[in-house]
Amino acid sequence: MSVFVKFWGTRGSIPTPGHATRRFGGNTSCVEVRVDGQLFICDGGTGLRELGLELVARSAGTPIEAHLLFSHTHWDHIQGFPFFSPAYVASTALYVYDVEPHDDRVHRLLRGQMRHDYFPVSFSDLGASIHSANLDGGSKTIAGVRVSAFEQRHPGRSFAYSLEREGKKVVYATDNELDMLVAAPEAIARYPDARRLCPPEFVRFVAGADLLIADGQYTDEEYPQKVGWGHSRATTLVDLALAAGVRQLAIFHHDPMHADDEIDAIVMQCRARADRFGGKLVVFAAREGMELRL
Fold first, then answer.
1. Where do the domains of the chain lie, and which CATH numbers do they carry?
2. pLDDT tens-digit readout, 203-217
3. How far apart are CA 283 and CA 294, in angstroms?
4. pLDDT per residue over 159-176, tens digit each?
5. 164-167 long-range CB contacts below 8 Å, 24 or more apart?
6. What is the residue-wise DSSP string for 134-174?
């Protein structure tokens, strides 16, 4: 059994091309997860464009099938879809998932962003078979992979996803203001080094993950001015990962104002925090083009 993960977009909020972001990348959220060859795509930010080009090249003309899991439909998570090359190929089958039965909101919003007011090619011009699907209210087995969803705290709603098969587990949890569930804003500002008790239901959802990909957009210093914006402190992810017994933590959804050197500093701070609490946790920053085999 094999699990392959590749990061195609790691940035949050808006694409940030340029020299200052060249190591960790400037494309917005998109992660490829393959479980025994079955393709899952987490979010469709601008990184989806390059993934699409790669999929077409890899397929060498054979049909492409992909299952698309969107954390939510803010622009930085869907804006790559109109540039996703496989969507223009007739032999492609794409399954776009909502969580609840009979809900097709994600499918409708992908279609909506391709209205001529926003884009010159309409959704109806896409050649692929694009199916609206759902997770039966929260959990479903897809091609032998158990896919589960967990609602997070973010303006407009967002969902984390867990993908499990034969003892291997990947959790994708971006755009989640975990800190608002941990303590009051004044306590967060006053006691930045205190151990944070994360919501037990979310700890259970993440528990035992071989890889947790999670939103750590803010530093401890930045967060008090960003309360309610829907993102977490990177250091809080360490506490979550330790409580849940996670093996590897990928800090994700990098702030558009953070250059590569600043992301390096965040990682060092998070590693020091894990060491201080005595945890055996591998901590790194998600980087565009990074490949992992679990």
1. 3-286 (3.60.15.10)
2. 999 999 999 999 999
3. 15
4. 999 999 999 999 999 999
5. 165/1, 165/3, 165/35, 165/36, 166/1
6. E-TTTEEEETTEEEEEEEE--TT-EEEEEEEETTEEEEEE-
